[in-house]
Amino acid sequence: MKVLLVSHSSQLGGAQKVLVMLAKALVESHHEVFCAPPSDHGYLPDRMREAGVMTTATDSADVVISNTATTDKGIRFASTRGIPHVWYVHEFRQDSTVLPSGHVVAISETIKRDLGDSATVIHTGIPVADGEPNPSPVIVTAGGICRRKGQLTLLRAAAEVLKEFPEAEFSSVGGPWERDYFDQIRSERKILGIPKEKFPFHRGTRDMEAFYRTGGIFASSPEREPFGLCIIEAMAHGLPVVTTRSGGPEEIVIEGETGFLVPLGDHKAMADRIVYLLRNPEETIRMGTAGRDRVKQSFNPEEYSARWNDFLGTVV
Predict the structure, then answer these.
(1) Any bridge partners for residue 103, and if so which?
(2) Pair (98, 209) in one structural domain
(3) How far apart are CA 161 and CA 204, in angstroms?
(4) Do residues 156 and 292 share a domain?
(5) Is 51 strand, coil or helix?
(6) pLDDT tens per residue across span 230-276
(7) Do 16 and 43 form a contact (C-beta atoms < 8 A)?
(8) Does a structural domain hold residue 113?
(9) What are phi and psi of 295, to 5 degrees?
């Protein structure tokens, strides 16, 4: 089968990372895969070429997959050629420019409910990392800095944690998506008396594997989350997770088994759960191990590939 993948961006982002995973799965299933990134330079075209995907233009395909509903290039290409089109939806409706219809794959039950559509849910699958859980006092987080991701709640939780555990450290990877919100966070960090070295903001890293390995706990505080790729990445590295009941994370984290789910915006509840794990390293190891087992069982590449192949078999 010849598959054309259409992306709204060539730069590093969760949706683009997942599209690369899909491309690899399709190539390994012996499909002929093309990708049409907006630019020939950047994260996406580089990773696609590494995966054996052709990034040159193609005039023919058996099916087109649009990665997010923020671009209509794929549906227009498919319509003019009379071939099937699939929306691969990662975002909430209000974040889209097109209301998807027809063949739709949602990254989570949360997105399926938001669409109000008979979408097929295919959870992302990733391999688990080698090594054992690490009960270190470093709490890591990842994601673009914006109100939806709610990093201000985690910063306020950090202030509470550092009162109880001065040796703890927080570390964030992800550039500012909303500059005014980032400025607010940095201002509040100063007001709360948190030293920069206790909660640094790194714009990015080329080695997320190494970043996750520095941590003993993963924490995030989104206001609403379509899925939570960074959560399963952290769990795949043996980190217990403390996050919010914000949609997607509730499909991933098993309360009290692989981590904790706290109410939206409740920085004290988040701090309490982080402190509990810092005080109980055996629980950190237990939950980290259980989280890695959950990724292996429910969010693995083999299941992801099989579900996509089954789905495409019903479309083409």
Answers:
(1) 86
(2) no
(3) 25
(4) yes
(5) coil
(6) 999 999 999 999 999 999 999 999 999 999 999 999 999 999 999 99
(7) yes
(8) yes
(9) -60, -45
133 domain residue, yes or no = no
Question: Closest Cα to residue 21, out of 107, 112, 111?
Answer: 107
Distance, in Å, from the CA atom of 11 to the CA atom of 8, rounded to the nearest integer, reads 9
Q: Which residue is associated with the tokens 């109980």?
A: 280
CA 275 distance to own-chain centroid: 25
3-state SS assignment for residue 4: strand
Residue written as token pair 């789910």: 261
Taking CA atoms, 276 is separated from 120, 137, 164, 244, 269, in Å, by: 38, 12, 10, 16, 11
Domain for residue 245, yes or no?
yes
Q: What is the DSSP letter of 87?
A: E
Q: How many domains does the chain have?
A: 2
Whether 109 and 152 share a structural domain: no
In angstroms, rounded to a whole number, what is the distance separating the alpha carbons of residues 153 and 169?
16
Residue 238: name the closest of 167, 166, 197, 294 by CA.
294
Residues 6+ apart with CB under 8 A from 264: 150, 223, 244, 245, 246
Give pTM, 2 decimals. 0.94
Three-point CA angle 228, 144, 141, nearest 5°? 60
Q: Amino acid identity, residue 277?
A: L
Range of the domain at 106: 2-125+300-315
* Cα dist from 79 to 8, 84, 92, 104, whole Å: 18, 8, 24, 16
Q: Are residues 260 and 119 in the same domain?
A: no
Kindly list the distances between the CA atom of residue 217 and the CA atoms of 14, 113, 258, 283, 301, in Å, as whole numbers in the listed order: 20, 30, 11, 11, 24
Instruction: State both tokens at 288.
Output: 């980290």
- Tens digit of each residue's pLDDT (9 = 90 or more) over 301-313: 999 999 999 999 9
**Residues across the chain:** 316
Residue 192 corresponds to which tokens in the numbers above? Answer: 């709360």
What is the distance between the alpha carbons of residues 187 and 56, in angstroms, rounded to a whole number?
46
